[in-house]
Amino acid sequence: MTAENMIGLVIYGLVALFMMGIGVTQLKSKEPVGFYSGEKPPKAENVTDIKAWNRKHGLMWLVYGMIILVSFFIGNLFGDSVWAVIPMVGGVIVPVIFMIWYHHQLRKKYLK
């Protein structure tokens, strides 16, 4: 493994751990969690099932962290090719679109 790959692995690993840390925190929270920092969490009285709300949001962030790591390793399969950028960037950006969509689905299901 080259020095560049090692640096990339450390960066992707730290970002993935941070995302998974958000997930674990949300899984353990007793109060309703927010999706991202720009959104205020819903009030407890407005959530029909706080445990399910937090679990689904927490799992979403855990999966996102895992996707980030997997995208790094898939990108490395391409070596120094320009094609390595597609899975590496795609694994970071594309899941966010699905996460936003899923969050809106959860809002419809769990918020009064």
Structural write-up:
The protein is mostly helical and 112 residues long. It has one domain. It has three helices and no strands. The chain has helices at residues 3-28, 50-77, 85-110. It is elongated. It starts with a helix and ends with a helix.
Question: TL;DR?
Answer:
This protein is 71% helix and 0% strand. By secondary structure, the protein is an all-alpha fold.
Observed structural traits:
112 residues, mainly alpha, elongated
- The rounded distance between the terminal residues' Cα atoms is 52 Å
- The rough form would be described as elongated
Structural class by sheet pairing and helices? mainly alpha
Number of helices, counting only DSSP H or I runs of 4 residues or more: 3
Any idea how many domains?
1
Rounded to an integer, what's the Rg over CA atoms? 16 Å
- Biggest β-sheet strands, sense, barrel: none
The average pLDDT score comes to 94
Count of individual beta strands: 0
N-to-C SSE series? Answer: HHH
Beta-strand residue percentage: under 5%
The percent of residues in helical segments reads over 70%
Unreliable stretches = none
Set down the secondary structure blueprint.
Blueprint: H1 3-28, H2 50-77, H3 85-110
